[in-house]
Amino acid sequence: xxxxxxxxxxxxxxxxxxxxxxxxxxxxxxxxxxxxxxxxxxxxxxxxxxxxxxxxxxxxxxxxxxxxxxxxxxxxxxxxxxxxxxxxxxxxxxxxxxxxxxxxxxxxxxxxxxxxxxxxxxxxxxxxxxxxxxxxxxxxxxxxxxxxxxxxxxxxxxxxxxxxxxxxxxxxxxxxxxxxxxxxxxxxxxxxxxxxxxxxxxxxxxxxxxxxxxxxxxxxxxxxxxxxxxxxxxxxxxxxxxxxxxxxxxxxxxxxxxxxxxxxxxxxxxxxxxxxxxxxxxxxxxxxxxxxxxxxxxxxxxxxxxxxxxxxxxxxxxxxxxxxxxxxxxxxxxxxxxxxxxxxxxxxxxxxxxxxxxxxxxxxxxxxxxxxxxxxxxxxxxxxxxxxxxxxxxxxxxxxxxxxxxxxxxxxxxxxxxxxxxxxxxxxxxxxxxxxxxxxxxxxxxxxxxxxxxxxxxxxxxxxxxxxxxxxxxxxxxxxxxxxxxxxxxxxxxxxxxxxxxxxxxxxxxxxxxxxxxxxxxxxxxxxxxxxxxxxxxxxxxxxxxxxxxxxxxxxxxxxxxxxxxxxxxxxxxxxxxxxxxx
Length: 583
Known about the structure:
By secondary structure, this protein is an alpha/beta fold. The chain contains 22 helices and nine strands. The chain has helices at 3-27, 32-45, 51-55, 59-75, 85-113, 118-127, 133-143, 147-178, 183-214, 219-240, 245-258, 269-288, 292-295, 299-322, 329-335, 343-358, 367-393, 410-421, 433-441, 451-455, 475-485, 522-530; strands spanning 403-406, 427-429, 445-446, 467-470, 492-495, 534-539, 548-554, 560-562, 576-581. The strands form two sheets. The chain has a five-stranded parallel β-sheet with strand order 3-2-1-4-5, with helices on both faces. A four-stranded antiparallel β-sheet has the order 6-9-7-8, covered by helices on one side. Helix 4 packs across helix 10. The radius of gyration is 27 Å and the shape is elongated. The model is unreliable at 454-461 (pLDDT under 50).
């Protein structure tokens, strides 16, 4: 190809990837629903975006390295200590039962229906084990199921992707090893490949741990170091033994997340941007390689395989995983209706299918188009039916707000009691023992002491919180906590206004909208309360009287709307007003 053709092809891939994600965002649908058809149609209409022609032999290595970055990023979120109780039991069972039953059922079905050899069928089944957290996350954000369901499914999605990556690489080497004339040499090849990936991943994580512990780095350089480490280790592994880089990337991510003494940030803007772009580029590129001719004989068999996985295998896995736990039957059915396939399935299929076809494994050329069809079918099905299914099963998260109030001053406890009396599920947190005792004495829910440690880690403890109100007596703490918690809370984070624009080291410079109307600063609220003012609630049957200061409006559906310096909600029929009433 000429240089001009390469420029046009690469430019189209980037534009299609980002444009499809923007369109999906506007349509409020999973990005894969747009990325896959866009790449497939573009590949069918023009040869300009055929990545195998654009990049030649570099395409497959680049896909492997891109997937390694994605798996490393997913591994960084795998702090296994956060899985507790019955949730942990369910997630663990979903992993091993899901991998086992999906592998067996898909392999047995693919042999006669897709006319594959046993080796190709096992490879396809191993690829389809993964669920796809890049699809599950946006779907759950749209559906908004109960907090417990969200947590279980997010953890399963985050864990099954690296597990599936490892399984796919091991099965790939096992299939190739099984074709060798001597069993001993084949088994040795299999074990050596696994050992290379695990050993290199552990060594890479150890080097990262030493450097990050001993050298003070900026956030940008720390991120660059991690990217260089994972790409370097994965590339070295793949150069030594094919496709062992995926194993090393997963091991590096999991080890780095669980090694003691490392304080990695929750948000990794560069990594998140890179992963989002890589996902778009990979889906457009991979789907462009799937030609209409390759789908001609696999569409109906692949849809039949999808029906087996969706209607039989996944519900069976969900009910077996939840057996003997306190997960209700309705939630078990929803777990059984949420297993879309995503980027790792597509990338591993693209990487492994051509290699197996080159080794003359029967039916290997059908692995990629079959995987493509299963991804399209599962994403479309779950994307269109997840919300109606959750509503029918009654597992949607209540629409009522669940605010977290931080601070234990007498007026803040009074405010929490008023919000609770208005029908909201209120949670409080305070650091001082005296304030915590005051909260308990008022009969309010007290958040665990590790709340903010969780918020600056994986943020799992703040799932279900719709807003955070920072009401402590320390203006700088309120300002810094607001910056941190904005990344861990789905809704708004509000803080008290300091007494003046110059008060505090941090507070005057962090920006953000302050709670309550003009004049209701932190010290002024405390002064008015000490003088006899109290927090009260009443129906919105008239405007606030003299001496009444509007703090919040609680809508009829239970949504909490605060008064801020920049905006004052207009009360309507059925609303409840939360007021500070002076004596």
